[in-house]
Design goal:
By secondary structure, the chain is mainly alpha-helical. The protein has one domain. The protein has 13 helices and 2 strands, in the order αααβαααααααβααα.
């Protein structure tokens, strides 16, 4: 990819030691608790950009929500096909998924939160650290994620409530920590509006997510 586009790659490798060294500064910039060390990985990328004199970057934030890149959207699509009784299409997607789809969809531990409440296991431990108000919000979010609805409805939940708002906040804090202007073209409102109106079968097809983007970029970047 770098050879074809004549670009220079820069890599960062976050480590446990580096994380512990940077933790106080990272928390100072974020100003609130966070639940994943991926925020630190992004922090390291912003720092690397500053070290190389880059002041404006393009970031892919929002692509998974807008173009159905997350594994859960494949599950939602299969559920939608089943509700619509499009059995032939459902069978074809299941076959394609088995042949060359994401094997991570078979991980029940990760997937259970998208199942109906009667099929979900309780998560012992998380309730121990939640206040009553936080526990209510957690239960409401889990219920909303697992509710019935078509794929675009699920996308709107992520865009408006459960994914993009927090991700953009993390990104804004990390980028500003190093005086970087981070732009997110996948969240241009015109692209978002267009993508939400696309049929789910264009965004998820032949066992693959982000199908419309894969097809559009074929030949421009390596598969």
């Amino acid at each position: 990819m770098n050879e074809r586009k004549e670009t220079t790659a820069h890599y960062v490798t976050p480590s446990q030691e580096g994380f512990l060294d940077d933790l106080s500064n990272l928390v100072w910039h974020q100003e609130e608790p966070f639940t994943t060390t991926s925020i630190y990985a992004q922090y390291c990328i912003m720092r690397e950009a500053q070290r190389n004199g880059v002041t404006v970057i393009l970031d892919g934030q929002g692509a998974d929500e807008v173009l159905c890149g997350y594994r859960k959207f494949t599950v939602y699509y299969l559920q939608q096909l089943l509700r619509e009784r499009r059995i032939a299409k459902l069978a074809g997607e299941l076959f394609a998924l088995a042949r060359h789809g994401d094997r991570g969809l078979l991980n029940f531990v990760d997937a259970q939160r998208y199942l109906p409440a009667s099929l979900r296991r309780r998560t012992p431990g998380i309730e121990r650290v939640l206040t009553d108000a936080m526990a209510w919000d957690y239960a409401a979010a889990t219920s909303a994620i697992a509710q019935r609805g078509d794929v675009s409805d699920r996308q709107k939940l992520d865009l408006d409530h459960y994914s993009v708002p927090s991700l953009l906040r993390y990104e804004d804090r990390n980028s500003m920590a190093f005086s970087i202007e981070s732009r997110v073209p996948f969240l241009d409102y015109r692209l978002v509006d267009w993508a939400l109106q696309l049929p789910a079968g264009i965004k998820i097809a032949n066992g693959q997510s982000k199908a419309v983007l894969r097809n559009a970029m074929r030949g421009a970047v390596p598969d």
